[in-house]
Each structure stands twice: as structure tokens, then as C-alpha cells.
Amino acid sequence: MSDIFNPKTERFDRALIKSMSEYKDLVAEFDNDYEGTWAKFADEKIDWFKPYDKVLDESNAPFYKWFSGGEMNVAHQCVDRHLESKKDKTAILFEGDNGDKKTLTYGELAVEVNKTANMFKNQFDIKKGDRVVVYMPMITEAAVVMLACAKIGAIHSIVFGGFSAEALRDRIIDAQAKLVVTADGAFRKGKPYMLKPVVDQALKHGCDCVQNVCVVERNGEEITWVEGRDKSYNELIKNESTSCEPEPMESEEPLFLLYTSGSTGKPKGVQHSSAGYILWAQMTMEWVFDIQDDDTYWCTADIGWITGHTYIVYGPLAAGATTVMFEGVPTFPDAGRCWKMVEEYKINQFYTAPTAIRLLHKMGENEPDKYDLSSLRILGTVGEPIDPPAWKWYYEKIGGSNCSIVDTYWQTETGGHVISPLPAATPIKPACATFPLPGISAEVIEEDGTPTEVGEKGFMCITKPWPSMIRNIWNDSERFKTSYFGDCKKDGKPVYFSGDGAMIDEDGYITITGRTDDVINVSGHRMGTAEVEAAIKKHDKVAAVAVVGKPHEIKGEGIFAYIVLKDANDASEDLKVEINKVIKAEIGAIALCDAMAFVPDLPKTRSGKIMRRILRSIVKGEAITQDTSTLEDPSIVGVIEGIVKL
Ligand code: WTA
């Protein structure tokens, strides 16, 4: 793509990295003294209780340690340390689904966090290292609960509110959570919806580890209270003290777990550290979003995903910013909701997913014209590749051709952005993540570490450890090594492989080409094919199944299932509905199949391996280029093609 857009640098005159030459200088500084440069930022940004002994400990690679021996506390870093200068500054600006508004200043947030932290200790006996599962809507209490855990050193594991009871149970059991924090429910599109009944269902069996459920009362709908187990947050909080000393946390002590899908097996509990994670959350907030003291920043993600963790709560608050939390959906009451909020709050940075951009574009091409969007300076996108038409609409209609678009590439595992334009420095190309951030050794390579040729697809790897990287998979160190450090090497040493493909163009710009494994990216949400297939197999009429991603106009990818029935005569539209019900119960509505095809068999090699690539080609209507002669039954390919075309 030849279009290059140069940001208007006068709009970013306070940016920390002001030009490509400053960017290059910083990259060179890291190249010359990697640990020393990281140490410089760690010393400048983190309010250490006790200095660290070692910047980077590689002795037990890939279990890297950063800033070991140091002590700090993430809640102190995000809230308490700001109290002297920002006590009355708005920390969180909340807007409810129905337009309700509420603000919490840094002073008020500190009080709420302390009371909640005391409640966790006193009422639920939560101690450092205990796991707390959070199944909550987008309300301020969710952020307070995260920070309260951080304050006392409890490890939170947030489960997205769209996951089913089964999915919630799996995560509770894997983390051996002692406490579940939830809400009765919340509001969406003008109506109440419920969360507590899902928790009740999840806890029906196998969750002996859970001693209590703490319920925030949000929508006031009737719920069942289990005597002795369930407690009202709203009641208990009243009596707690407003002061709480932060628990000193060694740099590497875990801050949180967040379960995410991989190519095989069950979701993995990605474990993040305290110091390294928060350092990069804060630095990227400052570099990529050019956050200034008078800015109002809005990220539309949900706290159930990593984007909500790093860029609604931890990053903005560590940077002392004003962050918006929105309970509702961008399309209610109409497709102008976001633009109305941008106008009203004078939002300076707006961060969302390509799926939302495509949807809002489709629903209201000219809707943005009704609102004054001139406060916007930076538009962010994340979660999936953005297509050039959506990018252009975002740039022109929302940004008035006057904003920098930061196409931020990163993952649950990277903790924060790894490849992204810098608003004042990087000339941007549509739908292109551009360059690695300073300090991040993101490289597009072959499996043996050879850099790929211009225009050729390669593996998106990060060849040096970085402070905010995943530390482990909860309960599964072996899987951590094989999932991320098993595929690619550089100079003979295993390096982190993201699971994504990428390409470098003639100007050195990096474009992410998408997953190279069996992960489907539905509306920017990662779905593992193995998980969806396991859910479908629970239906007793199903003999075998393979799911693949199918390009989708709004969602980027939708889920398409090839299903072999035990009895072919059972095939019907009703059965498809039934199968989707099973998926909803096992995983949640986000994993529903867009379409299914009942087929007599799957294309398998003689050793029984399903040839997914053939299935992907068929659903895209592409010519089959793979060699089908090694299949157990080569004729099945034509049969399946015929069925899918119908
Ligand atoms: C994809 C979300 C293209 C990628 C922060 C990655 C992207 C997965 C981009 C991680 C982007 C994320 N361009 N693809 N700007 N950002 N991805 O863990 O496939 O939910 O591996 O983290 O989203 O998804 P996750």
C-alpha cells in the first residue's frame, strides 16, 4: 500500500517521542544497553518500596525474571502515589447503559479500593497469593476489585461476563479460587441481564475451593442468596476502614491470571508479574496514547479481556489519567452512541476494535457528522487486522483526517503493545501496525531465525525477553515452554513465538497477517478450535467435527463447523440450533457457529489427522491446492465442496 499519512505533529507537541529520529535514537539506546535502558525507565516510572537487585535474570530461561528483589505495589503505583498531586482529579468516568453518570476522583478511588481490600481481608480471609475470580459487568466496582486485589497481593482472574457457567467453572477450578466476586447483573440495551445465576450454576459441582461469593448489587433484580456463602458487597463495604497499607510485592509476584485460548486443549491461565507488567502498561500509555494530564481517554473494551486490564484500568491509572468505563454497547440506543460520548466528554483518545469500527460504519456511515469530534487526537485499534476501508472511514470520518491512528498489535501474553505507530513520530500506512516499540525486539523470521525477505510471510517473534511478557501458564510450566518457545529459534536459542504471521514491506513496515495456528479471531476475540470442537462433541448425535474460521464482513472471522453425525438421517436445521445451544452452554454466545455443514466424513490423512487447511479453503471457496492424494479417502473433498456450495 503506497498511501502514507503524516500526523500533524503540532497536535502532539507534548509527546515523549516526537520524531522518527527520536524513535531511532531510543531503539539504538536499547540496542546498546538493553538492561541499562530498561533500568532507567523502571527507576523513573516505578515508585519502588525496595530497590531491585537485578534487572534481568535469564538463568532459568524461558522463565525470565525482571527487577528481582525489588518491592512495590501495583495499587500504590496506580492510585496512592497520585494522591498528593491528583486527589481531586477524575480517575474513572463511568457511563451506564442508560446514560447514568458517575465519577470517582483519585481520592475517592483510593477510599473505595482500601475499603474493598479490607473487606477481602477481614470478611473473606483473603491473603497474599490467594486467587479471586471476578465475573463482573463494566461498572466501577470491577476496577475497584482489581485494584483491591493488587493492594493486598491477591491474584485476580477475571472471566468475561459472556462466558457460560461451564467455562466459568473450568477457570475457577484451574485457578483454585477462594472467592468469586460478581454482580446480580447489569444493563445492556436498556434491559437488565443477569450474572449471579451463572455463578450459582458454575458452583454447583467441583468448586469446593470457593468459600464465598461476594455480590455487587447493580441492577436490583431478584437473585438467590446461598446462606453462609454469598455476601452483599454493598452491605459489607459500609463498615470497612478507609485506610489500608499496601502489601509489598516482590517484582515477580503475580498480579493476575487471565485465561485465553490456544491452538490446542483448554484455555491457558496466562500469568503476569507485578513490576514488569505495570511498567510497560504505563510506558505504552504514555508513548502510544500520548496521554497528557488534561486528557480524557476512552477504551471501549471489556475488563474481561487483556485490553480492558491494561488499557482501561492499569495503564491509564498508572499514568494518572482519566479513564472512561462504559457499561453499554456502541449501538444502543443508536449507532451514534460512541460519537455522542466523545462529544460530551471531549474524549482525546478513543480505542476500539476493528469489528466495532466496521459495525458502526455499516450502521451509520454519516452518523459521526452529527457530533463534534474535534477533541479527538488519537484513534486506536486492536485485536484483529483492520481492513483498509474501515481504516479510511475511521481516519476520515471519526478523525477528521486530523488524528493519528495507532494500529496496536499485541496479545494477552505480551501484557501491552509490542508493535504500534507512535502518534507524533510514525508516518502511518492504513491497516499496518508499523514498527516495534522501543525495547521490544519484535522480528519477522523463519523458524531458524533468518529474517524473511521483503513481502514474504514469516513468524512474528519477539527475540529478547521484555518486562511485561507472560511469566508462566498457571499450573502448567511445560505447556508454557512448548506453547511459546517451541517453534522458533534465533542464534540457536528458543525465542517467543506469538502464533501470528507477519510481513515486512519495502519501507520496513510490519503488517500482521493473522494467526498461523488453529485459533480463530471472532470479533477480535480469540477462540480455540479445540474448545469449540469439544463443545460440539458434547451433543450426543455428533460423531466428529472440525471447525474453521470463515471470513465475515463485520466480525473479521466467523466460526464454521463441519459436522459428521452418528446417523446422517438426523441432519436438520433444528439440529443446528440445538448444537449451537450446546456451544452456548459450554462456552458462551461468543463461540456460536455462524454456519454448519453436515458432511459424511472429514478429510483425514491415513494416520487420522484432519486436514484443516483443505476445510479452510473449501469454506472460502478457494481452489484446493493441497495434495489430496495422501488422504484416506481423496474423493471426500469433492463431496464436501458440493455440500458447502449448496
Ligand atoms: C490479534 C488482544 C492484527 C493477533 C490485545 C493476536 C491483531 C491476537 C492486532 C491476540 C492488530 C491483536 N492487528 N491482529 N493490531 N492486535 N491482534 O490475546 O492475532 O485477545 O495474536 O489480545 O489478536 O488476542 P488477545
What does this 3D model show about the protein?
The protein is α/β, with parallel strands linked by helices. It is built from 19 helices and 31 strands. It has an 8-stranded mixed beta sheet, with helices on both faces. It has a 7-stranded mixed beta sheet with strand order 5-4-17-16-18-19-20, with helices on both faces. Strands 21, 22, 24, 25 and 26 form a 5-stranded antiparallel beta sheet that branches. Helix 5 packs across helix 6 (140-152) and helix 10 (275-288) crosses helix 11. The two termini are 36 Å apart. 5'-O-[(S)-ethoxy(hydroxy)phosphoryl]adenosine binds next to helix 11, strand 20, strand 25 and strand 26.
- Computed Rg: 24 Å
Helix content: 25-40%
Distance between the termini: 36 Å
Model regions low in confidence, pLDDT < 50 over at least 5 residues: none
The amount of beta strand, in percent, is: 15-25%
The total count of helices amounts to 19
Beta-strand segment tally? 31
Largest sheet: 8 strands, mixed
Structural class: alpha/beta
> Bound compounds, please?
5'-O-[(S)-ethoxy(hydroxy)phosphoryl]adenosine
Mean pLDDT: 96
Shape: globular
Strand line-up in the sheet with most strands: 12-11-8-6-7-14-15-23
Topology:
Blueprint: H1 20-32, H2 34-45, E1 54-57, E2 65-68, E3 71-72, H3 74-78, H4 83-86, E4 90-95, E5 101-105, H5 106-124, E6 131-135, H6 140-152, E7 155-158, H7 165-175, E8 179-183, E9 185-188, E10 191-194, H8 196-202, E11 212-216, E12 230-232, H9 233-236, E13 249-250, E14 254-260, E15 268-273, H10 275-288, E16 296-299, H11 306-318, E17 322-326, H12 337-345, E18 349-352, H13 354-363, E19 378-382, H14 388-398, E20 404-408, E21 442-445, E22 458-462, E23 472-473, H15 477-485, E24 488-490, E25 493-504, E26 510-515, E27 519-522, E28 525-528, H16 529-537, E29 542-552, E30 556-565, H17 573-586, E31 595-598, H18 612-620, H19 636-645
Parallel strand pairs: 4-17, 6-7, 6-8, 7-14, 8-11, 11-12, 16-17, 16-18, 18-19, 19-20, 30-31
Antiparallel strand pairs: 1-2, 3-13, 4-5, 9-10, 14-15, 15-23, 21-22, 22-25, 24-25, 25-26, 27-28, 29-30
Helix pairs in contact: 1-2, 5-6, 7-8, 10-11, 13-14
The structure holds 5'-O-[(S)-ethoxy(hydroxy)phosphoryl]adenosine (WTA).
